[in-house]
Design brief:
Elements: E1 2-9, E2 15-21, E3 26-31, H1 34-43, E4 51-57, E5 60-67, E6 72-79, E7 82-90, E8 97-101, E9 104-111, E10 114-118, E11 123-129, E12 136-142, H2 147-161
Antiparallel strand pairs: 1-2, 1-12, 2-3, 4-5, 5-6, 6-7, 7-8, 8-9, 9-10, 10-11, 11-12
């Protein structure tokens, strides 16, 4: 079984991300970091300024901490202040994204409006951009990853590919 979510990116002037369940019930809002977001929109391809996106889900606090990196991106996903995953993006590497989760290295495959996080056997997270609303992603997370970790990884990847 899998869990489905919808994520709006740049949802409003105040919210960088909004997370909805499959019934369109709002689960979490992640506020924008105004000055940092503005800088990263224009110069994020060169170096990303550090940002932290924090949200509450299922009585747990999820924090996605983006770290500065020259010509790339790096993020740590923490659940209740415990590091659970790392996301790395290098502009010149193939594959460009990797995820370190529970001692395993996963690959992120990106395509226009689509990305998936997978190991050699199966896809663990799939996100597809909406056809009518291009800032809206439909995200499916397998039960092998908790929704908190899966959404944290998704937020990290979305924040890196939007720049």
């Amino acid at each position: 079984m899998a869990t489905k979510f919808n994520i709006s990116v740049d949802a409003s002037f105040r919210d960088k991300f909004q997370i909805f369940d499959e019934n369109e019930q709002l689960l979490a809002k992640i506020p924008t970091n105004l000055a940092t977001d503005f800088f990263n929109i224009f110069l994020g391809w060169l170096i990303n300024l550090p940002q932290t996106f924090t949200f509450h889900l299922n009585h747990q606090v999820v924090a996605v901490n983006n770290h500065p990196k020259f010509l790339g991106a790096s993020a740590t996903i923490n659940v209740d202040q415990q590091p659970v995953a790392q996301v790395h993006r290098q502009r010149k590497n193939v594959p460009p994204f990797t995820v370190e989760l529970a001692g395993k290295t996963l690959t992120v495959t990106t395509n226009s409006g689509y990305f998936s996080v997978h190991d050699s056997n199966r896809k663990l997270i799939v996100a597809k951009r909406g056809t009518h609303n291009l800032d809206r992603y439909s995200v499916v997370i397998t039960d092998e990853i908790t929704p908190e970790v899966g959404l944290g990884i998704t937020i990290a990847v979305l924040s890196a590919i939007k720049h």
